[in-house]
Design a protein that fits this description.
556 residues, alpha/beta, Rossmann fold, GMP Synthetase, Chain A, domain 3, 3 domains, 16 helices
């Protein structure tokens, strides 16, 4: 593994450019890539423009953009001059963006064309410039300041490891966005140590499909491959099947990062029906010996779909469904799992493609400490605490909130409940805030019940909540899939669909309750007509539905 003695982002970039100057660094799929040398030159030119705008070390510069090569150039231009980057998630609402810009007191905003409308009417007192990221045109501000690709910064900026590099505002599952302050060392350390899980070389090709403004893709899907000389490819449009499938065949990626929802959708829509639609195959699939053989065959086809050269398919952001993971394991698909949080920059545990253990979050990453705080005497379960150079500085302008999660001796309270097995693999049970206390004082983990529900036919997603002391499952069924079953009926299918919903709900309730413990049994199924509202990593914003459940319970 390459040595990176100075853990700052500009030091990482300078080192990798010296080693890989003429290699391709970033590109659109089908486009001409920037070499590492030209990437650095463009970065310096953007830094020079920011200097002309009066940006000083410590000033905040916001970045609201779809994934593209210029995203990374702007990111490094900001942090290389000691300024602080504020990456904004593209799916933030206009109001959320306005609040973040005001809270962070961002001075400059880089924005991509498709997102300009979200900020065009926002009156932000601190914001002096709005810049089009595609060509660095000034959209708002002093017009005499212009981008010159031959410019270099006038000053030689000195950046220290403990300097603030980024403020990342999370749109989490628990409510109000928080500004996570990450130092250069936090991010650089995590990127370097993530490389101990999977070897990356300058021959590797990485296809990026998750938002770069999320710390998962930012650290592991951008900085990590960059410091090893790999080439990162971006899509020009959202990763729908019609866009993604041709891109996979063109790039033939060797590495990718995804969230569980993506591979779970592929499994339920493409793989499982192939085993279930024919009676003979379905019967064989029920027998372990034949199931493994069929899964192996399906795995080879899936690998071809992804371009045929994939060696690392990272899954993070949420826990993967057990049935889907069992398929990946038996299919010998090169999947890996990582666990972390924005506050830990993000990775703190994981396993590589040859170390998979079903339903585990992997082993502790090199250089990080993990422990189970106050473990249960019987189960060994407790809250996961983390400590290491990747743990955040704190929440921006939130000293009380920071003190509630960071101990005096540097431990970060993750809020996740877990246990280590005898081999040191971490197994997560769920968020401590989500635990429902049963009538006999039992801990009920809604995530575990949801994993059962999500294996049922026609289920897209689910959420288990408590209403007036009873466990209720909110279930989003695949309406289009159900309607297809009635496509030959000439009459209005609405009535048939509603009838099917009722029948499915009854069958699902029986299915769940035959597979969970006595105190985890579901009392009611409530079909959801709309998709659940989700975060950037496709986790349901649970707090929204828990609030509704509480309000409903009060009314009943």
């Amino acid at each position: 593994m390459p040595d990176f003695p100075i853990l700052t982002l500009p030091a990482l970039l300078e080192t990798t450019v010296k080693r890989h100057a003429e290699r391709p660094a970033v590109a659109f799929v089908g486009g001409e890539p920037f070499t590492y040398k030209s990437f650095l030159a463009k970065t310096k030119a953007v830094s020079a423009m920011l200097e002309k705008m009066g940006v000083q070390p410590g000033d905040r510069v916001a970045l609201l953009s779809a994934n593209m090569p210029h995203w990374g150039i702007v990111y490094f231009a900001i942090v290389s001059m000691g300024a602080v980057v504020v990456p904004l998630l593209p799916d933030f609402s206009g109001e959320e963006i306005k609040n973040v810009l005001r809270h962070s007191r961002s001075m400059v905003l880089f924005v991509s064309q498709g997102l300009v409308s979200k900020v065009s009417t926002s009156n932000i007192h601190s914001l002096r410039f709005r810049i089009a990221i595609e060509d660095f045109r000034i959209l708002e501000g002093e017009t005499e300041v212009a981008f010159n690709e031959k410019d270099i910064p006038r000053k030689e900026h000195s950046v220290a490891e403990d300097d603030l590099a980024a403020i990342i505002y999370t749109s989490g599952t628990t409510g109000k966005s928080k500004g996570v302050m990450l130092t250069h060392k936090n991010i650089a350390f995590d990127a370097v140590k993530s490389g101990t899980i999977q070897e990356i070389t300058d021959k590797d090709r990485f296809l990026s499909v998750l938002p770069l403004s999320h710390t998962y893709e930012n650290t592991i899907g951008f900085i990590l491959p960059l410091i090893h000389g790999a080439c990162i490819y971006y899509l020009k449009r959202a990763p729908s099947p019609s866009v993604l499938l041709p891109a996979l065949q063109k790039v033939k990626p060797t590495l990718m990062l995804t969230v569980p929802l993506i591979i779970e959708k592929i499994y339920r829509a493409k793989i499982l029906p192939a085993f279930m639609d024919k009676k003979m195959v379905k019967k064989l699939y029920g027998k372990p010996f034949f199931r493994k053989k069929l899964n192996r065959m399906a795995g080879k086809k899936l690998l071809k779909t992804f371009g045929g050269e994939l060696k690392f398919f990272g899954i993070g952001g949420a826990k993967i469904n057990e049935q889907v993971e069992k398929f990946l394991l038996e299919a010998k698909f090169p999947y890996a799992v990582g666990y972390g949080l924005t506050e830990t920059a993000p990775l703190i545990a994981g396993f590589g493609t040859k170390e998979a253990r079903l339903q585990s979050a992997g082993k502790v990453m090199e250089g990080v400490e993990l422990k189970i705080h106050d473990p249960d005497k019987i189960t060994g379960e407790g809250e996961v605490w983390a400590r290491g150079p990747n743990v955040m500085k704190g929440y921006y302008k939130e000293p009380e909130l920071t003190a509630s999660v960071l101990t005096a001796d540097g431990w970060f309270r993750t809020g996740d409940l877990g246990v280590f097995d005898k081999d040191g693999y971490l197994h997560l049970r769920g968020r401590s805030k989500n635990v429902i206390i049963g009538p006999g004082g039992e801990n009920i983990y809604p995530e575990e019940i949801e994993s059962v529900i999500n294996n049922f036919k026609h289920v897209v997603d689910s959420l288990v909540v408590e209403q007036k002391g009873k466990l209720v499952a909110l279930v989003h069924f695949d309406r289009a899939e159900i309607e297809n079953k009635f496509q030959e009926i000439k009459e209005d299918v609405t009535g048939y669909v509603e009838k099917t919903y009722n029948e499915l709900s009854a069958d699902l309730k029986e299915y769940i309750n035959s597979r969970v413990s006595r105190f985890s049994k579901i009392q009611k199924i409530i079909p959801q007509n709309e998709e659940f509202i989700k975060t950037a990593t496709k986790k349901i914003k649970r707090f929204l539905y828990n609030q509704k459940a509480e309000e409903h319970g009060k009314r009943v």
